[in-house]
Amino acid sequence: MWYDGLKEKALWEAFEEISRIPRESGNEEGIRQWLLSWAKERGLKADKDKVGNVFIYVPASEGREKEEALCLQGHMDMVCVKTEDSSHDFTKDPIEILCDGKTVRAKDTTLGADNGIAIAMALALAQDKECSHPALELLFTVSEETGLTGAFGLDARKLSARRLVNLDSEEEGVIFTGCAGGIEIDASLKAKSRPVDRDKVDHFRLTVSGLLGGHSGGDIHLGRANAIKLVARIMHRLPDFMLTSLDGGTRRNVIPSSCTVSFLTSKEYTDLVPSIVDQVREEVVNEYRKKDPGVSVTLERLDEVPQEAVKAKTSAAFMESLYLTPHGPQAMSADFEGIVETSNNLAIVSLKDEKLSAVSSTRSLVESARNECAYTVAAAAEDFGLKVRFEGAYPSWEPDPDSALVKKTASLYKAFFKKKPVVTTIHAGLECGIINSVVEGMDSVSIGPNLFDVHSVKEHIEVDSAERMMGFLRYMLEKL
């Protein structure tokens, strides 16, 4: 196997098993049943709640039965993204893992280390006979990536632990004690197709692709390009167009790496379209030469001209709304240096069933700032006649300066690694804030190994970091 030369065999074996099971958000039944079977085979009590979260109860090591229990937590689902030429089917195909001894990645897809590595770590610790620990309660939640469903629907009665270690962090050496809250803004516009005079128009397809994309929380500060915004930038400059198709982005928490739009334009502008595209291409390639060097802007003139298209006024209104929708960091935190306070990700656009749709995801460490940013996004849509609704609001996790678990974790980290950890907050959303609100008295921290480019096909995990984190977790369980 690919992990034969690695040290933490139990960790990587569990990760391989998990990676064989399709587990896109909303399709967690396979991984849920596998976890319940895993526990049963080892004589461990396991349970699930109404929303599908899984609980596995691991008895304390001998002599530690009277100590307070500890919860190790991660989520079962993963973001599923693949390369444009990949035939991978996330409903049935296993993730194909590649390992060069230094990194673990997937072939042509996201790896799912977010958050499969948390499950693998927890299972490896649970079956480690040499690891001394208090009673462990392993909590694996559902649909974290699409609305934090598991955390919101958690049955608190199934947890006795009031200390929780979330393993959904992506940066070794950092202890997270807070995170941003968020809200989704869904905007739509009726777009009934109208007959066109096919002799007076030409048909084009514009594609922006090759972008790095990434996590809309963890990578938003990197200044990468947004494919939807680049398409809107070009369409904003066209004097006349009627949309025939539109498809961009994949998930609300993924910075869109590709977007394609097809449109009709009057023959009088046929020669102007390529010149505008060439001009914008030159601009963006220069602007993103360091932050997003793979950006590609292509234009095709299509032979077939459809009989119908979305009328010009509606097409222009929708594209102008996208052009004015904010994307990227909107404010930096005054309390945590280098941390984004508020951001928006223009995530998904489509033309389907005679409706133009756009989805944005706003995050902020400050609830009022989150709401104000969401209102700004909504205004950019409503001013052009789009209907807006807000969905999936979740609270921020406010740092607790008196947290006993944070202080203990930081102390143990310093003793184990011989250096101080960074104790801070994160712009990405974590389940801790919701779980803390659902389970009265819960004290939480979030830690994890180095993961890179999550929510993209470049996602990978640093092997040495994951194995160091396993060593620290054993030490932490022993000393708590």
Automatic annotation (TrEMBL):
GO biological process terms, semicolon-separated: proteolysis
Record domain Peptidase M20 dimerisation: where: 209-290
GO terms for MF: metal ion binding; metallodipeptidase activity
Cofactors that this protein relies on: Zn(2+); Co(2+)
Enzyme class: hydrolase
Domain of life: Bacteria
One Pfam family recorded for the sequence: Peptidase_M20
Protein name as annotated: Cytosol non-specific dipeptidase
Species: Candidatus Aphodenecus pullistercoris
Gene that encodes it: pepD
